[in-house]
Amino acid sequence: MIGLFDSGSGGLTVLTALRKRAPKADVIYFGDIVNAPYGEKNADELARLSEAGLNRLTKEGATQIVSACNSLSLSVLMGATEHTEIIEMTRPVARMLRSRAGARMLLLATLATIESRMYPNAIGVTVLLDELPISGLAGAIEFGAPEEEVQKIVREAFLKRRGKKYDAVILGCTHYPLARGVIEREVADIFGPIEIIDPAEAVAEEVMRRFDVEGSGKTRFLISKDPDMFRKRVSELFPASSYTIEVV
């Protein structure tokens, strides 16, 4: 069984990409909403949360795990868990970008992800990477802030890079695709019509390559807090799926 771990709703974007490719995979998802968002937490807190979340998935029967939170990538790669069958967010993206050598890209991410230097370390000199932390965006998306508030956060961040030229924008937080419409409009307005890259696609391809994706297609959601927004997103993203949601 594949386990998928995130601080809340962001990992649903990875699960969506995976389900398009592997409808028969058995998946257990843990959303640690009570501790969300992770993007403003320090390295010690992230290591503790990473270990706790991944251990929970293992105890629930997950044998192969996707850490679907960019902020946790450093903790995973530094061994916060001893689990050997694990995929985090940055390395699949780095492999994908090998075909785009020399491109100029803007990474949108949480402060924790930016400070970890995980994307530059994973990507190396393949592309010219500019990093832009967007404080508060993941939390606003997670807890269902009005679109106007999300747009204000995004625009204020983008204005710091006004006048710069990029070939693509990387959504370096799994929550950001949940506000993709807002982000696309602001990208087009400030940077022009450039590509938006969602790392969930590269991660899903990595899962297909490395993990067992055959099964009965069941999905089991575990959440540490039970907001209506999470249930609403699950019902919208997986309307035809059979699933259960448990508060743990």
Overall geometry comes to globular
Whole-number mean pLDDT: 93
Give the oligomer, counting copies of the same chain as homo and different chains as hetero.
single chain
Largest sheet data: 6 strands, parallel
Number of helices: 11
CA-based gyration radius: 17 Å
Total E-strand runs: 10
Which structural category do the helix and sheet elements fall into?
A: alpha/beta
Helix content: 40-55%
Please write the string of helix (H) and strand (E) elements.
EHEHEHEHEHHEHHEHEHEHE
Strand content: 15-25%
User: What is the terminal separation in angstroms?
Assistant: 19 Å
Biggest sheet: strand arrangement = 4-3-1-2-9-10
Low-confidence region ranges:
none
Please explain how this structure is put together.
With 248 residues, the chain is of the alpha/beta class. The longest helix is centred in the N-terminal third of the chain and has 17 residues. The mean pLDDT is 93.
